[in-house]
Amino acid sequence: MNILDLCDEILLIILQKLNNIDVLYSLVGVESKLDKLACDSLFTTFIDLTSISSSEDNRSINNPVLYRFYTEILPRIQHNIQCLTLDNILINNVLEIGNYSKLCRLILVNLKYSDISDVFSGS
């Protein structure tokens, strides 16, 4: 039996046991059934990208995981995101990606007081 032979309900139960960032990164664009499940609002409503950028090695735009989120994943799921958690390194890149029409909560981690006006003025 192949995992793709399982019904959507069973796959969703399995995927809910995993970190949503891992689900998105691993399954979006891989196979149509898994892609559809990964883009479900269960995995795209609350997005915390600080886990990706938590180490110095991961803070670069050249990081392949972050790059894939910027270019492929966030543009596809932006309409579902209600809560977005970002650190000071990711703020500008992520907010410039598009229109987060359902965003009602933005959590900014490690943002310096002196940078607040730059973020919200678009500088």
Q: How large is the radius of gyration?
A: 15 Å
Arrangement of strands in the largest sheet: 1-2-3
Number of helices: 7
Main sheet attributes: strand count, strand direction, barrel closure:
3 strands, parallel
Q: Helices and strands, in N-to-C order?
A: HHHHEHEHEH
General description of the model:
The structure is a single chain. With 123 residues, the protein is an alpha/beta fold. It folds into two domains: 1-41, no CATH class; 45-123, no CATH class. It is 42% helix and 11% strand. Strand 1 (46-48), helix 5 (64-77) and strand 2 (83-87) form a beta-alpha-beta unit. The longest helix has 14 residues, at 64-77.
Descriptive keywords:
single chain; alpha/beta
Topology:
Blueprint: H1 8-15, H2 20-27, H3 32-38, H4 41-44, E1 46-48, H5 64-77, E2 83-87, H6 91-95, E3 105-109, H7 116-121
Parallel strand pairs: 1-2, 2-3
In short:
The protein has 123 residues and is of the alpha/beta class. The chain has helices at residues 8-15, 20-27, 32-38, 41-44, 64-77, 91-95, 116-121, and strands at 46-48, 83-87, 105-109.
